[in-house]
Amino acid sequence: MLVQYGALPVMSHLLTSHQDTEIQYYCAAALSNLAVDGEHRGLIMLNHPEIVNGLIGLLHSPAIKVQSQATLALRNLASDGAYKKTHTQKKKSRHLINLEKTEGFQLEIVERGALPPLLRLLTSPNIQVVLAAVAALRNISIHPKNEQKLVQTGFLGPLVTLISYDRSTNAPSTSNVARSASGSAINQATPILMSTLPSSNDPHGRTVLDIRCHAVSCIRNIVGSNASKSAFASMGGVERLVILLPNGPAQLQSEMAACVAVLALSGKTSLLLLFFRVGPFFWLLQKQCARSSHAHPLSKTC
Amino acid sequence: MREVLARTSVVKDLLTLMTGSDSVEVQGNSAAALGNLASSGKPFFFLLLVFNFFFFFQLPSASSLCQCGPMHTRTC
User: Fold this and answer.
1) How far apart are CA A183 and CA A181, in angstroms?
2) DSSP per-residue letters across A52-73
3) In chain A, what are the domain boundaries?
4) Nearest CA of chain A to the CA of B21: how many Å?
5) What is the ipTM of this complex?
6) Confidence (pTM)
């Protein structure tokens, strides 16, 4: 109804021309809710691309709630499966849109420059922002053409960290700052603490669990090629995944097992899984993975 | 060599344990992971194990891409 009465141009105007954080927040929230509907997603992406640009611009906002809401709207826009279904049912309706163009909203969001701000938001100290960012990334990662871009932008490192996310992961503590300053927080095989998973009754704990699930699922989506599997292994991802495998609720275990299934498709990572912590074999294999990912530099940060 | 080590693999043991989970999804994905690991080393023990789970359970697509659905927002 709102869309039929011309809400989208109004929201587009509000989004791009106002600097007031309240307006930006409510506008992003409204767009996020509109984007739940598949047909509305199609109309936004095809007829109002400036809205996508505006939402990507809001990812740079200093207001956390604006960042979070804009990320959520992008997450909804990046889930285009339902749109195709809805649209197929309404092929003869007046909202007829070229179906070929509707494939790959994820690709378009990436092409409009969403990756660098999303990468920054993944390491935000605010847990809701991290959740929104990793969920958006999960949807963006389902397009096969985005795989290499995501790896090249440097998402694998933060995603490996998010596998064992807890409340203090992105907290600006002295040790974290020191480690990130040295630039070795991701690449070196740091000891992994078995952080306790909070119960699902705790809303904060539920958020932590969702972050971990989205991160594992996103990794599963982007480690399609052998090179990205090697890059993931060289960052200690396989080790972290296997250590956390027996712990956690069924939802997380299921995601991790599915991720292991994908990793087992490559020769090197399957050997790494089979030789897991078997003396020098494991160390040698991890070195080998690091060497091959260095030879094909996929983990370059932008 | 690879087959010998595969039989003593920590990951294999973990995944085998997880195939006994209460959750059908965990069972299915663990079995799929075991199947993929097995296919690289051809240990027939694995294949037999995985066959049992393929036979009894309908596996979720472990290697297919997954996404989270859109969600509504409540403003405060």
Assistant:
1) 5
2) HHHHHHHTT-S-HHHHHHHHHH
3) 1-87+103-112, 144-169+196-302
4) 8
5) 0.70
6) 0.75
